[in-house]
Specification:
Number of helices: 15
CATH topology of the largest domain: Glycosyltransferase
Distance between the termini: 41 Å
Helix content: 25-40%
Number of strands: 25
Shape: globular
CATH class of the largest domain: Mainly Alpha
Strand content: 15-25%
């Protein structure tokens, strides 16, 4: 019996926002693989059995070998086929091991194609895997290319790339990399040509596919490589190392996959296991990991299928549950670029920035920039990090002041809660003090401004945004107490309790809480999850019971709507409120999301913004925010501990 893990799009190679290839079909032979944004980036695999050729991946003239199984785990995707007396397994493992940042940051995916006889007969088998040169440039039109092959320490290596190299020469969204070199390496013969790279083996084939982007990020004027190359290591050296460590790394991936699946099953059964498996690589692969000038970790997200912003705070915020579980240093890596830019002369505001540029150029916030309309997709923004304090490059009306201040304070407190390290907090305390003052002054009853759900429009007196401000003030109090300033810390915690009491009274709708403080609508109060995670006790159990009952009563076929203004929802926020629900109600939140994954007709990488009634995605593809679906796992770990 076939057992197919059905996803809207199946992750094949998901290393970073550019090296991100998906199979958006039921079978990998139904269509060519694509970049997450939809542009064709074909990978091909085939098998010759006793002289008969069958396709395993990609389009072609030959018949497709029947797919009997497919499995997606946190780090791996495996396709199993059977025909002609042979079973073939095509597997892709991207070792995004958060406890090994060098391996995680290396743009390398392990590929294996193994076969076995199932009819008791011996067969003559040839296996083949190839990657198109389309992976090396943006757009459908071919570009002049250069290619070659060489051997290094027994590893046969091939590469292809554009003859004209302009690293980091564009920025934006729905565009793919237009520079760098695609690599294929293994022990079997490799070839390179204008069409791409290929490797041919016998009954079993193992190789690595990798991408050398030359320069990964323009980090405030410094063209920086990926983290693994921070001390001078190059990609060929990394390939050699990862080939030598193949068995060890693959075993660690298996252990991680089993751990995540096991913990997911305990919390929410097969539905939750499907959700976490669909989210792990997507979350991490929407980032690039680099080192700053001090050698410290900087983890930069890209707003996929949004506006292409890099390092967006309100994209980082929902993603952190996964990082808090596996390695909280990554949370600090999300915060460092924002803190750095916030302390530059050009940023004159007393609140936190929204972003630090447009991917892959971290050169200063672009959201709300006055030249935004003159900076079309594909071009680069001005180097705002160089602007003096006398400049005025931003519109205030499009900022997210309460949102981002709350996010940053909560993220820093959560990172401390996870590992006990306060060094980053100490270094930037004057900035954090400005941000908490802003929350106190403007967060209790916010004026008309944007929040992370900005796609829903400006909203005055936003109750959920105010909840974030309350939790942000409390988070700052926790940090002060951790720093040994007990009296000051308790002052902020007491203030947070006062704000929470006022908040609950002003938004009380009886059996639910309002969308706005003037008594309109309702919304998911996902920001209150920090009350439980930090053990703040801002709200009593009756509050959470009422909210849970309301949410369950208003859930549609594919999930709980974000708020009363529309039927669309956000999968990450659903799992945050699920973390606040009793264990017996967890399925009421997880099952509709799993239902969306299994049944949506939209063949795009796991969208976090879709219609809760018809299961069609609204926008947002392959985004990092799906790290938020790990919130129930984080809640279980922290509250049990």
């Amino acid at each position: 019996m076939s057992q197919i893990t059905r996803l809207p799009a199946v992750p094949v190679i998901v290393n970073d926002p550019y090296f991100s290839i998906w199979s958006a079909a039921d079978r990998p032979t139904d269509r060519n693989t694509t970049h997450w944004a939809g542009e064709d980036k074909p990978l091909f695999a085939d098998i010759h059995v006793d002289g008969c050729k069958k396709r395993l991946m990609g389009l072609g003239n030959e018949a497709a070998m029947p797919l009997t199984e497919s499995t997606v785990t946190a780090t791996a995707t495996e396709f199993v086929y059977e025909d002609m007396g042979v079973r073939a397994k095509l597997k892709f493992v991207t070792p995004l091991l958060m406890d090994d940042p060098d391996v995680l940051s290396a743009p390398v995916t392990y590929v294996s194609l193994t076969t076995e006889s199932v009819d008791g007969k011996e067969h003559e088998i040839i296996t083949h895997f190839s990657a198109s040169s389309q992976l090396t440039y943006s757009g459908a039109e071919g570009k002049p290319l250069i290619w070659d092959t060489f051997d290094t320490k027994g590893l046969k290596t091939a590469y292809v790339g554009r003859r004209e190299q302009k690293p980091l020469s564009h920025s934006g969204d729905h565009i793919t990399i237009d520079w760098g070199y695609l690599f294929l390496a293994g022990k079997d013969p490799v070839t390179a040509g204008e069409g791409g790279l290929s490797i041919t083996g016998g009954a079993n084939l193992e190789c690595m596919i990798a991408y050398e982007d030359v320069a990964s990020i323009n980090y405030f004027g410094r063209l920086t490589p990926a983290w693994y190359a921070r001390n001078g290591k190059n990609l060929v050296q990394m390939l050699t190392e990862m080939d030598a460590r193949r068995a060890e790394i693959l075993n660690r991936c298996r252990v991680l996959d089993e751990k995540i699946r096991s913990e997911s099953l305990k919390i929410g059964g097969e539905d939750y296991a499907l959700i976490t498996a669909a989210s792990y690589r997507q979350c991490l692969g929407a980032h690039k990991l680099i080192a700053d000038e001090n050698g410290e970790m900087v983890f930069l997200s890209k707003e996929n299928d949004s506006n292409g912003c890099i390092g967006t705070v309100d994209v980082s915020y929902p993603s952190i549950p996964l990082m808090l579980l596996e390695n909280p240093e990554f949370v600090k890596g999300l915060c460092r670029p924002i803190l750095k830019f916030a302390e530059m002369p050009v940023w004159r505001y007393d609140f936190a920035p929204h972003d630090v540029g447009r991917y892959p150029n971290a050169t200063g916030q672009v959201y709300a920039a006055k030249v935004r309309v003159h900076t079309p997709n594909g071009s680069t923004y001005p180097p705002y990090y160089l602007y003096p304090a006398s400049s005025d490059p931003y519109h205030f009306a499009y900022q997210m002041p309460v949102e981002e201040c709350g996010n940053m304070l909560i993220m820093l407190a959560a990172a401390w809660r996870a590992d006990g390290d306060l060094s980053l907090v100490k270094r930037h305390m004057p900035t954090l003090e400005k941000w908490v003052r802003y929350l106190i002054d403007f967060g209790e009853d916010p004026g008309e401004q944007l929040c992370t759900d900005d796609f829903a429009g400006h909203l005055a007196r936003n109750v959920n945004l105010s909840a974030k401000a309350v939790c942000g003030v409390a988070a700052f109090g926790l940090l002060k107490k951790a720093l040994g300033e007990a009296e000051t810390g308790e002052k902020y915690l007491a203030l947070a309790r006062e704000l929470a009491a006022s908040w609950e009274k002003r938004c009380d709708g009886g059996d639910h809480t309002f969308l706005t403080f003037d008594g309109n609508g309702w919304s998911m109060k996902y920001n209150m999850v920090w009350d439980k995670l930090f053990g703040l006790n801002l709200m009593d159990d009756d509050y959470y019971a009422r909210e849970n009952a309301w949410y369950k009563a208003h859930t549609n076929e594919f999930g709980l709507p974000l708020d009363s203004r529309s039927d669309y929802t956000k999968s990450d926020w659903i799992m945050w409120v699920a973390a606040l629900a009793p264990a017996e109600d967890f399925s009421a939140y997880a099952a509709p999301i799993a239902h969306y994954i299994r049944n949506t007709v939209c063949r795009v990488a796991f969208s976090d913004w879709y219609d809760s009634k018809n299961g069609t995605y609204q926008h947002f593809i392959a985004r990092s925010v799906q790290g938020g679906v790990f919130m129930p796992m984080l809640m279980r770990k922290w509250t049990e501990k």
